[in-house]
Model the fold of this input.
Amino acid sequence: MTNNIVKGLAVLLGLTALIVGALAWVYDATRERIDTNRNQAFWKEAESLANDTTLRDYLERPTLTSSVRLQDDRRLGLARTTGYGGSIDLMILLNADGSIAGVRTLRHAETPGIGDFIDGDTPIDGNTPINGNTPWMRQFRGLDATDLPDIDGRTGATITVDAIRQGVKTFVENSGGSA
Done:
Protein backbone atom coordinates (compact mmCIF):
# COMPACT_ATOMS: atom_id res chain seq x y z
CA MET A 1 0.00 0.00 0.00
CA THR A 2 2.73 2.49 0.98
CA ASN A 3 4.69 1.47 -2.11
CA ASN A 4 1.71 2.35 -4.35
CA ILE A 5 1.36 5.75 -2.69
CA VAL A 6 5.05 6.50 -3.26
CA LYS A 7 4.78 5.43 -6.92
CA GLY A 8 1.66 7.56 -7.37
CA LEU A 9 3.38 10.58 -5.82
CA ALA A 10 6.43 10.04 -8.04
CA VAL A 11 4.24 9.95 -11.16
CA LEU A 12 2.34 13.03 -10.00
CA LEU A 13 5.60 14.86 -9.31
CA GLY A 14 6.96 13.88 -12.73
CA LEU A 15 3.81 15.09 -14.50
CA THR A 16 3.89 18.34 -12.52
CA ALA A 17 7.52 18.94 -13.52
CA LEU A 18 6.68 18.19 -17.15
CA ILE A 19 3.72 20.60 -17.17
CA VAL A 20 5.66 23.36 -15.41
CA GLY A 21 8.52 22.92 -17.88
CA ALA A 22 6.13 23.10 -20.84
CA LEU A 23 4.48 26.25 -19.47
CA ALA A 24 7.88 27.87 -18.91
CA TRP A 25 8.89 27.05 -22.49
CA VAL A 26 5.65 28.49 -23.92
CA TYR A 27 6.04 31.62 -21.80
CA ASP A 28 9.62 32.10 -22.96
CA ALA A 29 8.75 31.38 -26.60
CA THR A 30 5.88 33.91 -26.69
CA ARG A 31 7.13 36.63 -24.32
CA GLU A 32 8.72 38.80 -27.01
CA ARG A 33 5.65 38.66 -29.26
CA ILE A 34 3.33 39.48 -26.36
CA ASP A 35 5.50 42.43 -25.30
CA THR A 36 5.55 43.72 -28.89
CA ASN A 37 1.77 43.45 -29.18
CA ARG A 38 1.23 45.17 -25.81
CA ASN A 39 3.58 47.98 -26.84
CA GLN A 40 1.76 48.46 -30.16
CA ALA A 41 -1.61 48.54 -28.38
CA PHE A 42 -0.27 51.10 -25.89
CA TRP A 43 1.00 53.42 -28.65
CA LYS A 44 -2.23 53.05 -30.60
CA GLU A 45 -4.14 54.29 -27.53
CA ALA A 46 -1.62 57.07 -26.88
CA GLU A 47 -1.69 58.27 -30.47
CA SER A 48 -5.48 58.26 -30.48
CA LEU A 49 -5.64 60.20 -27.22
CA ALA A 50 -3.04 62.75 -28.33
CA ASN A 51 -4.31 62.87 -31.93
CA ASP A 52 -0.72 62.40 -33.05
CA THR A 53 0.22 59.36 -35.14
CA THR A 54 3.96 59.89 -34.75
CA LEU A 55 4.36 59.43 -30.97
CA ARG A 56 5.96 56.00 -31.13
CA ASP A 57 8.60 57.39 -33.50
CA TYR A 58 10.20 59.73 -30.98
CA LEU A 59 9.08 58.90 -27.47
CA GLU A 60 10.08 56.47 -24.79
CA ARG A 61 7.10 54.81 -23.20
CA PRO A 62 6.12 56.47 -19.91
CA THR A 63 6.06 54.49 -16.69
CA LEU A 64 3.83 54.81 -13.64
CA THR A 65 6.46 57.03 -12.04
CA SER A 66 7.30 59.26 -15.00
CA SER A 67 5.56 61.14 -17.79
CA VAL A 68 6.94 62.07 -21.19
CA ARG A 69 6.84 65.52 -22.72
CA LEU A 70 5.54 65.62 -26.27
CA GLN A 71 7.01 67.89 -28.94
CA ASP A 72 4.11 70.32 -28.50
CA ASP A 73 4.83 70.54 -24.73
CA ARG A 74 1.91 68.36 -23.65
CA ARG A 75 2.64 65.61 -21.11
CA LEU A 76 1.59 61.98 -21.50
CA GLY A 77 1.69 59.57 -18.60
CA LEU A 78 0.19 56.68 -16.74
CA ALA A 79 -1.53 56.46 -13.39
CA ARG A 80 -2.74 53.56 -11.30
CA THR A 81 -5.51 54.03 -8.79
CA THR A 82 -7.69 51.66 -6.81
CA GLY A 83 -11.40 51.42 -7.54
CA TYR A 84 -14.09 49.18 -6.13
CA GLY A 85 -12.94 46.13 -8.11
CA GLY A 86 -9.19 46.68 -7.80
CA SER A 87 -6.56 48.54 -9.81
CA ILE A 88 -7.52 50.97 -12.55
CA ASP A 89 -4.79 51.91 -15.04
CA LEU A 90 -5.20 55.30 -16.71
CA MET A 91 -3.46 57.10 -19.56
CA ILE A 92 -3.55 60.86 -19.03
CA LEU A 93 -2.65 63.66 -21.41
CA LEU A 94 -2.10 67.18 -20.08
CA ASN A 95 -2.03 70.28 -22.25
CA ALA A 96 0.95 72.62 -22.05
CA ASP A 97 -1.10 74.95 -19.80
CA GLY A 98 -1.72 72.11 -17.31
CA SER A 99 -5.34 71.50 -18.28
CA ILE A 100 -6.48 67.99 -19.08
CA ALA A 101 -6.43 67.06 -22.76
CA GLY A 102 -7.81 63.58 -22.16
CA VAL A 103 -8.07 60.59 -19.85
CA ARG A 104 -8.30 57.01 -21.08
CA THR A 105 -8.84 53.83 -19.07
CA LEU A 106 -6.37 51.16 -20.11
CA ARG A 107 -7.39 48.42 -17.67
CA HIS A 108 -9.89 47.97 -14.87
CA ALA A 109 -11.81 45.33 -12.93
CA GLU A 110 -14.84 47.39 -11.95
CA THR A 111 -18.24 45.71 -11.75
CA PRO A 112 -19.68 45.14 -15.23
CA GLY A 113 -22.79 47.25 -15.80
CA ILE A 114 -21.96 49.56 -12.89
CA GLY A 115 -18.33 50.66 -13.16
CA ASP A 116 -17.75 50.07 -16.86
CA PHE A 117 -18.73 53.65 -17.76
CA ILE A 118 -14.99 54.35 -17.56
CA ASP A 119 -14.25 51.81 -20.30
CA GLY A 120 -13.73 53.38 -23.70
CA ASP A 121 -15.22 50.41 -25.51
CA THR A 122 -18.58 50.64 -23.76
CA PRO A 123 -21.34 52.91 -25.14
CA ILE A 124 -23.07 54.92 -22.42
CA ASP A 125 -26.66 56.16 -22.69
CA GLY A 126 -26.79 55.13 -26.34
CA ASN A 127 -23.79 57.31 -27.27
CA THR A 128 -20.90 55.74 -29.13
CA PRO A 129 -17.49 56.46 -27.58
CA ILE A 130 -15.39 58.96 -29.52
CA ASN A 131 -11.70 58.06 -29.85
CA GLY A 132 -12.07 55.42 -27.15
CA ASN A 133 -13.59 57.78 -24.60
CA THR A 134 -17.03 57.41 -23.09
CA PRO A 135 -19.12 60.54 -22.55
CA TRP A 136 -18.31 60.33 -18.83
CA MET A 137 -14.55 60.26 -19.44
CA ARG A 138 -14.76 63.17 -21.91
CA GLN A 139 -15.92 65.51 -19.13
CA PHE A 140 -12.29 65.74 -17.93
CA ARG A 141 -11.21 67.57 -21.10
CA GLY A 142 -10.26 71.18 -20.54
CA LEU A 143 -10.49 71.06 -16.74
CA ASP A 144 -7.76 72.40 -14.52
CA ALA A 145 -5.98 69.21 -13.59
CA THR A 146 -5.19 70.36 -10.05
CA ASP A 147 -8.86 70.91 -9.11
CA LEU A 148 -11.51 68.44 -10.26
CA PRO A 149 -14.71 69.44 -8.44
CA ASP A 150 -16.89 69.47 -11.56
CA ILE A 151 -16.75 65.74 -12.28
CA ASP A 152 -20.22 64.22 -12.43
CA GLY A 153 -20.76 61.25 -10.18
CA ARG A 154 -22.47 57.99 -11.09
CA THR A 155 -25.15 56.39 -8.98
CA GLY A 156 -23.81 53.18 -7.48
CA ALA A 157 -20.22 53.89 -8.55
CA THR A 158 -18.99 56.52 -6.11
CA ILE A 159 -15.80 54.59 -5.35
CA THR A 160 -14.96 54.33 -9.06
CA VAL A 161 -15.59 58.06 -9.64
CA ASP A 162 -13.46 59.01 -6.65
CA ALA A 163 -10.70 56.63 -7.78
CA ILE A 164 -10.53 58.17 -11.27
CA ARG A 165 -10.51 61.69 -9.82
CA GLN A 166 -7.74 60.71 -7.37
CA GLY A 167 -5.72 58.96 -10.09
CA VAL A 168 -5.75 62.06 -12.28
CA LYS A 169 -4.91 64.32 -9.34
CA THR A 170 -2.02 62.09 -8.22
CA PHE A 171 -0.64 61.96 -11.77
CA VAL A 172 -0.68 65.76 -11.99
CA GLU A 173 1.03 66.13 -8.62
CA ASN A 174 3.70 63.57 -9.51
CA SER A 175 4.37 65.03 -12.95
CA GLY A 176 5.11 68.50 -11.68
CA GLY A 177 1.66 70.03 -11.29
CA SER A 178 0.05 72.30 -13.81
CA ALA A 179 2.05 74.26 -16.35
Notes: Residues 1-179 form one domain. The chain has one domain: 1-179.
